[in-house]
Structure formats: C-alpha cells, structure tokens
Write a structure and sequence with these properties.
Strand 2 and strand 3 form a beta hairpin. The protein is α+β, with helices and mostly antiparallel strands and about 140 residues long. The protein folds into two domains: about 80 residues, Arc Repressor Mutant, subunit A (Orthogonal Bundle); about 55 residues, Dna Ligase, domain 1 (2-Layer Sandwich), CATH 3.30.1490. The strands form two sheets. The chain has a three-stranded antiparallel β-sheet with strand order 1-3-2. Strands 5-4-6 form a three-stranded mixed β-sheet, with no helix packed on it. The relative contact order is 0.13.
C-alpha cells in the first residue's frame, strides 16, 4: 500500500481551497473597504507573503465567480474587491478611503422588479453602488 495523501480542502463552490485563496480570504476579512489587486499584492508583499500578482488576479477572479467576493469597477476602470455577506445587497462606498457599508435596499428591489415587468423582462440582475464621502473624510479635520 502506497503513502496516503491528505484529502484536499474545497470551498463551498467546489473549487480547491489553495494557500493563495486562504491568504487572500484572511486578508480581505480584515477590512470593510474595497481594494484593488495591486493593493492586495503590495500589502501581502509588505508582510512577507510571496504571492505573485498574476496569481492574485486569477484567484480574485475565481473567488468572485464563486460568490466569495463582490467586485466593482471604479470610474477609472479599475476593479476593486471586497469580502461580503452571502445575501444580495448593495454598497455605499467612500470615494476617498474606500470604507464600504452594505445596504439592503428593498425599495431598489421593488423598483427593479417593476421596471423589468413593465418592459417584459425576466431573470433580471442588477448592481447598485452609491459613492460619496464618509463622515471622517468629509469632516474639515479628516
């Protein structure tokens, strides 16, 4: 009988739970702000982790596709990532510091359903992101 290997861990979406995915998940769980792949790369390198930038991009994409992360595009076209709750929600995002608050938005849901119905659409998805300045960034001393 040959040597036995430990069973591989898998995420809920059935993907292999790699070291890189665990590192990114742990780092993203420490913040309420959306961050870029480059910011994650810089943060991880600063603390001594040797994850490559291309690996970070691939892993973030896979985690987003698996529903582990929310992604949003900035006005400049950059994609930012954040670990979010499992239920459908929207975001209020500070343009300055990136602080993010999850919003439920029942009114938005009703409006989206009615707009889709009024125009004969079905199976409609939507994303609502509100951008502004948080209290700390909009205060004169912030």
């Amino acid at each position: 009988m040959g040597p036995q290997t430990a069973p591989r861990a898998f995420t809920e979406a059935g993907r292999r739970d790699t070291r890189q995915r665990r590192v990114l998940r742990e780092h993203l769980s420490e913040s309420d702000a959306f961050v870029s792949a480059q910011q994650l790369y810089d943060d991880l390198r600063a603390r001594g982790d040797k994850v490559g930038l291309a690996t970070i991009y691939r892993t973030l994409q896979a985690m987003t596709e698996a529903g582990e992360l929310d992604a949003l595009r900035t006005d400049a076209g950059e994609t930012l990532y954040r670990q979010c709750g499992p239920r459908h929600h929207h975001h209020l995002v500070c343009r300055s510091c990136g602080l993010t608050v999850e919003l439920e938005g029942r009114g938005v849901e009703r409006w989206a359903d009615k707009a889709a119905s009024d125009h004969g659409f079905s199976e409609v998805n939507h994303v609502v992101e509100l951008f502004g300045l948080c209290a700390a960034c909009s205060s004169p001393t912030g």
